[in-house]
Amino acid sequence: MSIVEFPRHNPASGDWSPDELRHLIAVFRADAAGASYAVGATERGEPQFYLLGPAPEHDCVLCISRLAQGYVLEDGAGRLIGEAPSLDRFAIEAARAALRGGRSFVARATLVWCAIRLAIEEKFEPLFEESQELLVRFAPQVAGII
Amino acid sequence: MVRPRQVEKAVPKGMELRKRAGAWLQERRKAAGLSQIELAQRLGLKYYTFISQVENGFGRVPSDSMEAWARALGVAPAEFARHLLAFYEPELHKLLFEVKA
């Protein structure tokens, strides 16, 4: 298997931007009480966001990495859950992937909950004008229920 | 509303042990002359981000891939697993290898 190696465009891009970090924290804030997060970086300086489980172990539940051309989501065991070019798209893709099953229960539950939250939070935005986007958001959840 | 908090102070013991395990793994990888990307390639991973996750102390080497990690790093699998067990499951390690009858 060949490794996916994105070219590094900006050597100084090793940190999450305030917007990215705010977005990530917002997406995952509904995690259970006692949740926490940490940030780190790969050897090449790409930032990583670790969503941690409850104390005392604080096991990593999800890891989001920003590579040069997109975002990668893995669970705490290194299983690839989703890939997306943007954080907005990322949550949708990740939820869709999670609903396909085969992931840890905690990771799936977290992602599905995130997707639901995103949908609810944006209900007053021009979501209804974008029927295609609406379909993308809800179809995976409906499919999961069915 | 509960928001995730960044872990900074009073690092729990389990996390501290994982960080020590990660540091040891990073030492072994560098000693083997491998980058994170090269190690990921040898392990058949699509991305190298999990290597970083583990080395930063936020993940564990899965037990079903310990042998592959050990061989990629040039360490005897049994020694590798035993060493990591001391970090990941210290009580079990103590029972198995340290407690004298």
Biggest chain pair interface: A-B, 43 and 32 residues
Secondary structure category of chain B: mainly alpha
- Please report the distance between the alpha carbons of the first and last residues of chain B: 52 Å
Shape of chain A: globular
Uncertain regions of chain A: pLDDT < 50 for 5+ in a row? 6-12, 123-129
Question: Concise description?
Answer:
The complex is a heterodimer of chains A (146) and B (101). Helices cover 38% and strands 21% of the residues of chain A.
Highlighted features:
heterodimer; A: 146 residues; alpha+beta; five-stranded antiparallel sheet; 4 helices; 5 strands; globular; B: 101 residues; mainly alpha; 434 Repressor (Amino-terminal Domain); 62% helix
Task: Summarize the structure in words.
The complex is a heterodimer of chains A (146) and B (101). Chain A has helices spanning 18-28, 87-99, 105-121, 131-145, and strands spanning 36-41, 47-52, 60-67, 70-75, 80-84. With 146 residues, chain A is α+β, with helices and mostly antiparallel strands. Chain A has one domain. Chain A has a 5-stranded antiparallel beta sheet. In chain A, β1 and β2 form a beta hairpin. In chain A, α2 (87-99) packs across α3 (105-121). The longest helix of chain A is centred in the last third of the chain and has 17 residues, at 105-121. Chain A is globular. The termini of chain A are far apart. Mean pLDDT of chain A is 69; it is low at 6-12 and 123-129. Chain B is mainly α and 101 residues long. Chain B has one domain: lambda repressor-like DNA-binding domains (434 Repressor (Amino-terminal Domain), Orthogonal Bundle). Chain B is built from 6 helices and 1 strand, in the order βαααααα. In chain B, α4 packs across α5 and α5 (77-88) crosses α6 (90-98). The model of chain B has no long low-confidence stretch (mean pLDDT 89). At the A-B interface, β1, β2 and β3 of A face β1, α1, α2 and α3 of B. β1 (36-41) of chain A pairs parallel with β1 of chain B.
